[in-house]
Amino acid sequence: MAENCSQFPPSSEVYFKELTVQEKVLVGVSTLLCVGVLLLFADKVWFILRHYGNRGLPRLIKHKSLVLVGLYPVAAVTSLLAVFIPRSTLLCDFLASSYLAVCLYEFTSLIVLYFGGKSQLIHTAQATGFRLRTPPCCCCCCCCPTVKVTARNLTRLQMMVMQTAFIQPIVSFVSVVLWTDDKYNPNVTTPNSPATYLSAISTVSTLCAVYGLVILFWSTRRYLATHSVTPKFLVMQLVLLANNLQRAVLRVLADSGVPVCVGSLGSSVRADAIQHELVIAEMFLLAFFARLVYRKPVMQEMTQGNASPENDVNCNSYDDIDDDSFMSKGSTLNGTSYRALGDTVSYQSDENTMHPSHFSLSCDE
Hints:
four-stranded antiparallel sheet; globular; mainly alpha; two-stranded antiparallel sheet; disordered C terminus
């Protein structure tokens, strides 16, 4: 086969004609893995809809969790479409990056909801403070202080994360518009190329969002251990690495001629295909791990002194509280007050053993 390398993505017919048998097998495996991601997503959605409440805080947490678990099928499906139709790569990457930007902000909102609202977060995390010396921007800056946890500082962190949910879609949309007029090529980063400046804006926006999210996460993770916030944070950050750092590495290799040109498929075309196939495999693994962390009971255990009903976002009826959830926390509770999705629950027992008949529920309006 004569080589006529082109860095422009070919049509799907030309692309599949020039694939080797091994590459076609990889496409088939990627398709099966994508189906597996969708099945795992359906299982997580079924669990969340069945076991999360429908009123007040439980409902808000349910909605945020559904958005977050949808990250993996969105990334997998868009990557599979880019594998089958190489010319749709820019549009598929636009959809995946925009959804990821939304998920970054939704995760900050989920952390606030786990506390029961902003006032409860501020009251609980005051002893820790917001540590500004954190990655990815200021991990080596010794001059960065630890600031107080206040409503204003919390809002600033949320704005740092929220901006990427607006900037990323705008940058991606402008990129697609310029690409339709042959003025945008992500593989060309010369001073006269729009891709250079659009990529810089996107990178700065992402770094600011991740920096704000990491500050909030490190300041609150010790208080939310029962909500598995750390593994939830990790599975989301790994998606970010797969969509940004991994793609950047492969594009640098493509500029150096790796992978080599085959037929009319240039290095950048083959690198994009490898990137999307890797993303699909990674999303399958992350979706499986996310299935485990999002299937844990949404229960926050707090000491008697930390329970603060007046700071709750909502005070709901206890129709959704099930006795087995409390029994699973252990038989000896001795002086512990539980907050089940924002509601304060106390108990009375003569033998320090919790039984369904011994519950005494209180809810201050």
